[in-house]
Design goal:
Elements lengths: L1 H29 L9 H14 L7 H29 L7 H28 L9 H27 L8 H8 L10 H19 L7 H10 L24 H9 L5 H5 L1 H4 L6 H14 L12 H5 L6 H5 L6 H15 L6 H11 L31 E3 L3 H5 L1 H16 L4 E3 L9 H6 L2 H16 L5 E4 L2 H13 L6 E3 H10 L12 E4 L13 H9 L3 E2 L30 H10 L4 E6 L2 H14 L6 E4 L7
Helix pairs in contact: 1-7, 2-8, 3-4, 4-5, 5-6, 5-7, 8-9, 9-12, 22-23, 24-25
Length: about 625
Amino acid sequence: MSVVVLIAVTLAAIAVAGWRLAPRIRALFAARPSHRTDRIGSRIGAAAGEILTHRRLFQRPLSGAIHALVLVSFAVLLTAILQAYAKVLVPSFVVPAAVATAQDVFAVVMLIAVGLALFQRLVLRPRRFAGSNGTDGLAILGLIVAIVVTMELEFILDALAGNGTPGRPIAGLVAGLFPGATLPAAAPAAAYWAHIAAILVMLVYIPGSKHLHMFAAFPDLVLRNRGPRGRLAEPVAGANRVTDLARKDMLDLHACTESGRCQGACPAYAEGLPLSPKRLIMDMRDGLSDTPDRPLAGGIIGPETLWACTSCAACMEVCPIQIEHVPKIVDMRRSLVEAGDLADGLEGVLRSFQKNGNSFGKPARQRPKWAKELDFEIPDARREPVDYLWFVGDYASYHPLVASRTREMARLLHRAGVSFGILHEAEKNSGNDVRRVGEEGLFAALAADNIAELSACTFKAILTTDPHTLNTLGNEYAALGFDRPVVHHTQLLHELVEAGRPPRRPGGGVVATDHHPRYLGRYNGRFDAPRAVIDSQGYRLHDMGRCRENSFCCGAGGGRIFMNVRGPEERPSESRIREALAIPGVSVFVVACPKDLVMYTAAVETLGAGDRIRVAEITELFAG
């Protein structure tokens, strides 16, 4: 009779779980292929490595430790679940003593891990948990406790009844506290069926909860982007429903753990804007089952949420599952642009890009105007071969604050004897922020014009002071067939210093900190050259708490610098300057991006901190 009941209730639970899971499975297999099955062996190995090492999870030690303990304990206690079925279905089955010991020990380890998780969730209550489904989290922890406690209770009662399995130290110890205890004959069986019930309730619960990530995380990691992070995918026509997502995007929705690491790293969320990368994924996931036919952009996800993103990819950097938030936001922005639902101030800037090739509304002939104050003439790369074709960019050309640093860079190159030239009025904006705003057609037009001009020139490499330009010319133009080396000016300056042109300076003891631009560092992995240059000029470099891959954003990216919007809280650039000011003795804040120079100079003025710290573009360090 027990066999029949066990099989019947298990099949019933599997049927209910399957019914709850079926809509998600159908949507997953109906999704567009992600075309990420190349090097499948390497992908599987890398995904397994991420899970086994918990590399990103341990960036927050307590959370990493809790998850690692739960994962290992879960793997061990799976044997106890198999044993529970074998006990009825295969009466002759005997549990090896070593396995019994492991089950007993890891039952306690699992309860410790759950206790730590409850302490973190209910007492510490990290801000990043705000917006998560707390009830769901508590429910799964409760079910884990129910499974472990009923399992251990069964072992203890078996020991008291004289039927215990050898090798269970915890169960034996507890049973030894009640010598001669008389038990109802049905007590061990009641504990067994309570254990089976807890297992099956969890089986039914998981398909409708965030804990589906237990099964979605591994394939999601296998399908993660292994190409350049700074290269966006081509848009898909008509993709403005949750059901239009690609398979990797669909897996992202089910793999999300709601840990809130993305939310904690997001500059838009910190500024008080209506964007939480976590809530974005959760809302898309909820839309899959609740409102699958409702428009995604402007429907399930509000325009104000999408326009808040700076495209800094901090969310993607810290996500343990490597969910891809930014590409989804850009895809949805494309739909908003197509519908004419633009952020305030954006329409005029896009018209300027279309008409003038820049965001300042200036005629193209004024692009090289910054060079007129130089006492030498910069060659026209369209007319003579050069080693470096300097793609100057909008802010470095037109913004008066940045243009002075552009001239200083030109003087440095000239003194060092570097062969370089510019496109003069033929240069147009590279289109990095245009594409991230979602104006794909305008990006294509800008890229085509620039590629035509660049292709007609003779040079060894492209030089730029703008990380946004570096990213687009190096990653996205390459996908369009124009694949040439692109060098950031910090890299060239480092090479020149190493060659003694200009020479190194002795240490002066001035304390400096540097901001790592996301399109130089996080997107393209170039961290070391700027630091080497700062060190070469005699400064004592101290990192801020958020540095390298975890560097905080200035708030200008993703087209935000073009929008007439502001959140109710402190701007990211102001938060960053406060972070720098916390370093003892710091007096110089070094940047290597034109937009950073503008944003952080304004932040210092807003905070009234000009007497304590100055913002210096890295070329200024060579002037003293």
